[in-house]
Amino acid sequence: MPTIIDTHCHIYYDDFKPDWDQMLERAATAGVKGMIVVGADAVSSQQAVEIAASHPSMFCTVGIHPHDAAGVTEATFAALEELAQTTPKCVAIGEIGLDFYRNRSPREDQERVFKRFLQMAKKLDKPVVIHDRDAHAETLAMIKEAGVTKGVMHCFSGDLAFARQCLEQGLYLSIPGTVTYPANEQLREVVRNVPLERLLLETDCPYLSPVPHRGKRNEPAYTRITAEKVAELRGLTVEDVGRITTMNAGRLFGIPLWDESTKIAYRIRNSLYLNITNRCSNHCTFCPKFDEFTVKGHNLLLDHEPGFEEVMAAIGQPKDIDEVVFCGFGESLLRLDLVKQVAQALKQRGYPIRINSDGQANLAHGRNILPELAGLVDSISISLNAADAVTYGKLCNTPFGEAGWQGVCDFLREAPRYIPDVTATAVTVPGIDIEACRKVAEELGVKFRVREYAEVG
């Protein structure tokens, strides 16, 4: 069962009164474990606060939708600021922004109100929930001018270029059910190409029901449908998408629903990964662990290196696993004896074993360790990452000097004698000649795979 958060819903409307309890039950059954009830005017902001106070897994925001900007007075600003300050579960200022599609309020009023709420968010140190329709350039310009770097573009409707501008400003993008609409290829392109760690899920209910409920009332349970579509677009499971977007919501809004415990064994897709060390042979310039130790929603920062019994306990009895991968955020082969011990135990259970490695184990151990992996390891992915020793040294900061790159090449050349499936990989770091790396892999007699620079796990 996934853990999903509907980060934008308007469940205070009368539409939900007849089946309120059933609506919550359907959400729980779908894996929706939390909701952010978003205020759209003074009245609904107060309603959102009251709903959140009555439900442990619900949170709220306060703000004024641009449609209602014309009626906002100084008293309105003061009342909502006090509400935001005095409500423990108020996690953001919003829904605020610009709507130049319907123009239900004059543009000058929309901009006046938007500016004031951006200032309020900065003052209160709260993120913003942004409504932007047919006002992409103007909305982002005002956010930049206000110096706001924490927030979400709700119901994101821009193209990939605009998405990247929003990400550069520090904003998250929230994906609604419109990603399921056949004509909305633009949003699907965004989902395919931006870091999943910057996406949120939402319904905007009762509006924007996903297929197959389009045209009917939307509700929080349907966040699951959006999660499934995002999973399909990214080649992940719905559990992966739920876990990652829940982490994202936790980071942006401070919602305490993300499992932050350190993982020794963790799942991505249908693979079980083992995180047995944070030590590495290299100090690669592109390695994401120098920014954080999270991969696809899993915290991999170890406070100690686990032993055999601890690793096996973390593995448990997993079901529906296609392979077990020694990977984590470190070079597993530095703990060669543990790798062999665990691999042998798992091979007896029938699991295929893969290792992701930097290919410097022979240099690190001072001997050829590949014969020791024969019969235990079914496949290995080795980070080649450069087509020559100089580039490799600059990119990977190998402690072995000029011998580092040659050691990787020698390891790749030798590995097929003992491991059936050997692949050299290269990360698309700007400036790296991927085709030259491919040629080196072919000359070494192994397969080659490209790894996206911005995609970890």
Description:
With 457 residues, the protein is an alpha/beta fold. Helix content is 37%, strand content 18%. The chain has 15 helices and 17 strands. It has an eight-stranded parallel sheet. A hairpin with a 2-residue loop joins strand 11 and strand 12. Helix 2 (42-54) runs parallel beside helix 3, helix 3 runs parallel beside helix 4 and helix 13 crosses helix 14 (403-414). It is elongated.
What's the SSE blueprint?
Elements: E1 4-9, H1 20-30, E2 32-38, H2 42-54, E3 58-62, H3 74-86, E4 90-99, H4 107-124, E5 128-133, H5 136-146, E6 151-153, H6 160-168, E7 172-175, H7 185-193, E8 199-201, H8 223-234, H9 238-253, E9 265-268, E10 271-274, E11 294-295, E12 298-299, H10 308-315, E13 323-326, H11 336-348, E14 353-357, H12 361-365, E15 379-383, H13 389-396, H14 403-414, E16 421-427, H15 434-444, E17 447-451
Parallel strand pairs: 1-2, 2-3, 3-4, 4-5, 5-6, 6-7, 7-8, 10-13, 13-14, 14-15, 15-16, 16-17
Antiparallel strand pairs: 9-10, 11-12
Helix pairs in contact: 2-3, 3-4, 8-9, 13-14
